Amino acid sequence: MDEFSGSVREDETERPRREIHLPSGNRDEEEGASWSTTEGQSQTTDERETERQSVAGGACCPVGHLSFPFSQPPGGPGPAQLSPSLAAMSLQSSTPEALRVVNLLQERNLLPPTPIPAPTPCLPQDLQKINCHPEVFRSTLTSIPQTQSLLNKAKMPLGLLLHPFKDLSQLPVVTSSTIVRCRSCRTYINPFVSFLDQRRWKCNLCYRVNDVPEEFMYNPVSRSYGEPHKRPEVQNATIEFIAPSEYMLRPPQPAVYLFVLDVSHNAVETGYLNVFCESLLENINALRGDSRTKVGFITFDSTIHFYNLQEGLSQPQMLIVSDIEDIFLPTPDSLLVNLNECKELVQDLLKSLPSLFEKTMETQSALGSALQAAFKLLSPTGGRMSVFQTQLPNLGVGALQSREDPNQRASAKDIQHLSPATDFYKKLALDCSGQQVAVDLFLLSAQYCDLASLGCISRYSAGSVYYYPSYHHQHNPAQVERFQKDLKRYLTRKIGFEAVMRIRCTKGLSIHTFHGNFFVRSTDLLSLPNVNPDAGFAVQMSIEENLDDMQVVSFQAALLYTSSKGERRIRVHTLCLPVVNSLSDVFSGADVQAITGLLACMAVDRSVTASLSDARDAMTNAAIDSLTSYRQSVLTIQQPGLLAPACLRLFPLFILALLKQKAFRTGTSTRLDERVFAMCQLKYQPLAYAMLMIHPALYRVDDLTDEGALNINERTIPQPRVLQLSVEKLGREGAFLMDAGTVMYLWIGRNCHPNFLTQVLGVPSYAAVPDNLYMLPELDTAESQRTRAFVGWLRDQKPFFPSLHVIRDESQLKANFMQNMIEDRTASALSYYEFLLHLQQQISK
């Protein structure tokens, strides 16, 4: 099956070979951001849900005990071969700390003071040293059960979480006419294959023995011959290949950017157009691309407006198409133009656009027709469509009606209208995907826009959704700042075009459900017309054949894409994990954050295919079932209390956090679009960002010191401890910062020390703290520098820009801050202690 879409083919035949070289510095020239090692920092941004395969994701469980179908029916045992280099490995050295028994009802202060690291798989040191970084590739279970029945007994989901195109500070890049792959299963050679001798290597996924090509005998790094096991491909679990030209079916596509802008009265009122035009003018030279890069613009209200930007015109020419039922391109050849050749016209257009529509009285929005026009324009080349929308589309194809009943926001046990009202946007997204077009949606609105329907345009075309509720250039300066910062990142970050991704795993394992934004082209091939460095993916897995004779299994994700410079590249990540045959070893390898992230994806699917209450029950039962299994099958001495292994001690807390998260909460007034957006984010955000949205981090910041501080680029970054999310941790005399991923709150206690107020906020007293303060003033005091350094450091770890709100007891936003106090009781939700009692009652039934 072809992995390369469109412009590349994957050929079974060997090719003439030439020398491989690593670019100087062993680093990709396109890479920028650093590869950080702290847990709370993994990569990626905003948004969206994913195509799910029809095979297994949505089947409901028998009525009664609602849980997630973690796996498919197991197949029979299958043959397996043991790789000789691993035969001596023993896994009985499981870390006792992971299995230390914790009575959750007694040990209340479980939250570690620093971010939680990913567990380290129990592998021999030489293998673990070169294993894939957990921020790029991690498994819910770092010890893989030998059989499906053992996995079923553990009652935990088996799956992988990926961040495949993450910005990396170091990325080995190999140029070669021979990319060495298994002749049987097409796995790329990697650090976990075994060399039988200098001339033969055994695949770690299907165990076929392959010949080592002659060219592979030469090592370009050491410039020596005869040591294939020392080549970069076999020394690095993450590596990028530049695909040789003979793989190409057609030239790689150029970078093409089309901007589709709502210019209705509503849009002009928000003032977003000025910010967009200023931002693009400012960053136009930083758009990723080469001499072939093309750009175009479409604006729309009740009609569609095109812009002729052909070289030679003295000014941009606006062409209006009012027949929105039968959309056509007025001058097909001059609407997408070469950016370098027509830059002045593009700049002229951006300078004049905001004033063109400032007096408009057009209230209608023909979004569907504008998208059809944009699709026609991009179809010949493929590319990226960036759509800016400020209201419910109400004219022509794809028109929608309001489905939100504000009176039902809080009271309803089950939330209606989580699925699309029409299949127009999904169908168009699939057409886009087929033509290598991805659609990114920026929704800037104070009113209901039916994101459940509109979001499909991005979800199935591998785009992203950005949402700015109540956006207004005057009334909401924090959202304006966030939009500006997000837009800058969006316009300048790296991008891959016409991409596909395939995930392979060792024989016996199988993948059955995918989560993220893409279209599943064949059973295991994801179509990604664009891939961006801020997108995360997840997959669920099952064990189809017993892994009896295997010490380890491997997973390999291969992402094939065209860079913005027109190079066809293949980024490969390989993860190796041990196989275990005892339930206690399975438990000791549980990764509680990865499990929570995967369950969140599964719960979003369940909310849409079944109901929100089903999803909530299934999440609660995930905690009950795994702790019951641990109690009955792992604990040797029965004792009273709610018992968990240390590695799962935070599982009930994270499940409760999910139940109180905007996506799944009930009994609290939650706008439908905000709920749907929260669901999109859980399915699309890389794990580190999703975890902050599920369980925010709380810090006390009025007493920051340099003790234990980090030193980064000659800046001292204080490291306050993470606090439990409970009101009892807030002191009236303190100031507390909450990092909830996309937003931060700085809560000022009523009796906050005057020193903090004057030195950090620049105000004389608590009463003088302004109502809508969203920036920390730059004061020349040690306290101000420490606080700003810490907030800046938290922001720098994210690819999106979290806005900051300074709040007092009287602030409107205090309710949002308090809703994140997950351990406390609310009118409609249990406290953490009550939730533990509920779990204990269910487990001891």
UniProtKB/TrEMBL annotation:
Residues of the region (Disordered) are: 1-58
Q: Which stretches make up the Sec23/Sec24 beta-sandwich domain?
A: 496-580
A GO cellular component entry from the record: endoplasmic reticulum exit site
Q: Which UniProt keywords apply?
A: Cytoplasm, Cytoplasmic vesicle, Endoplasmic reticulum, ER-Golgi transport, Membrane, Metal-binding, Protein transport, Transport, Zinc
* Domain Sec23/Sec24 helical, residue spans: 591-691
Q: Which Pfam families match?
A: Gelsolin (PF00626), Sec23_BS (PF08033), Sec23_helical (PF04815), Sec23_trunk (PF04811), zf-Sec23_Sec24 (PF04810)
For bias kind Basic and acidic residues, which ranges apply?
A: 8-21
Provide the Gelsolin-like domain boundaries: 717-790
GO-annotated biological processes: COPII-coated vesicle cargo loading; intracellular protein transport
What SUPFAM superfamilies does the database record attribute to this sequence?
beta-sandwich domain of Sec23/24, C-terminal, gelsolin-like domain of Sec23/24, Helical domain of Sec23/24, vWA-like, Zn-finger domain of Sec23/24
Which GO MF terms does the UniProt record name? SNARE binding; zinc ion binding
Localization, per the record, is: Cytoplasm, Cytosol; Cytoplasmic vesicle, COPII-coated vesicle membrane; Endoplasmic reticulum membrane
Q: Where is the Sec23/Sec24 trunk domain?
A: 252-491
Membrane topology according to the record = Peripheral membrane protein
Q: Return the CDD domains for the record.
A: Sec24-like
Report the family membership. Answer: Belongs to the SEC23/SEC24 family. SEC24 subfamily.
Protein's name in the database: Protein transport protein Sec24A-like
Question: Which gene underlies this protein?
Answer: LOC103368719
